[in-house]
Amino acid sequence: MGFLYRKLIRRLLFNFNPELVHDAVIRSARAAQNVPLLNSMVALMARAKDLPVTVAGIKFRNPVGLAAGFDKNCEAARFLAGLGFGFLELGTVTLRPQPGNPKPRLFRLHEHRAIINRMGFNNAGAWEAARSLERLLPLPVPVGISIGKNADCSIEAAPANYLEALKVMYPFGDYFAVNVSSPNTLQLRSLHAGERLRRLVEPLLDFASGQKRVKPFFVKIAPDLEHQELEAAVELAAEMKFGLIATNTTVARSSVPERWRSYEGGLSGRPLRQLSNEVLGRTAALAKGRVALMGSGGISDGAAALEKLKLGADLVQVYSGLVYEGPFLVKEILDYLNRSGWRPPHR
Ligand SMILES: Cc1cc2nc3c(=O)[nH]c(=O)nc-3n(C[C@H](O)[C@H](O)[C@H](O)COP(=O)(O)O)c2cc1C
Fold it and tell me: Which of 119, 177, 263, 269 is least enclosed, having the fewest CB within 10 Å?
């Protein structure tokens, strides 16, 4: 199936504007998920042997998830679950709807199997996302919801903005990802800094601890952090008991040719693999088993997924790989993990 996608479907889709294609894919997935027979057929084709793993108290049927940003409005989750993912991270959702950055804002670097995006959290807002997701529940896999800040909200007001979005989304997620690492919202990455991160996450954890079901949190970090910032984030995670997702996209351009340097935004896909693996490896070394870890960045095959799991990730996520390798990438990765004899470590 992957062969068919790469030879035929990708060729066709890549004739069109990337954002147009993405929107069409989401619309088609939305329509398809309401046709049970179609859903079952896709699920059958994407089926792989389970590789169950428990992380942060959640049972996953396998460790391969969808990364945030693919289904920003939580509208195609039932179809996406059928592709064999162990979990879906939906969003990033902001409290209020916002249009995102001016277009064009999404670019394919085809020969590098990479993407540059500066979408800027374009989304329909938390209430709309909650409505969509509520209609699709229950889903066969755990759902994470990524939360971000509205562009017109100051850094000082960010904690309240995240908290309000969390309150709307809380009933619908199994875990929450706090996104402080998108390079496309002004100053967002300054929220990584030690005390600022504490002030941001504390009210979220406090809110969760007062709910009937206490759900886990992950903070998604940038691959461009200074070592000291990374160290501080890991220590805070260990102390406050939240997990980390390493990593979001990079603002670095050293892994792609000169002509891409003038494109602002976050780089993802194959050229991100090495950098995000380095950060994941350092994160795991600092965490020493105290922090649940997800690896994201540059997974385009089973070997790249296994690499992250061996570096210490408990779970992995894919985005750009799906664009280049197609929807059956998840099955390809799971078959590879099964063939390689990978088993979740006992933690
Ligand atoms: C078009 C696009 C939009 C994205 N939007 C988000 C987002 O809203 N929130 C987020 O946390 N990450 C977002 N990401 C980052 C991905 O979740 C992922 O961490 C990153 O692309 C690295 O993984 P990859 O190399 O498999 O793509 C986005 C990535 C892309 C390509």
Answer: 263
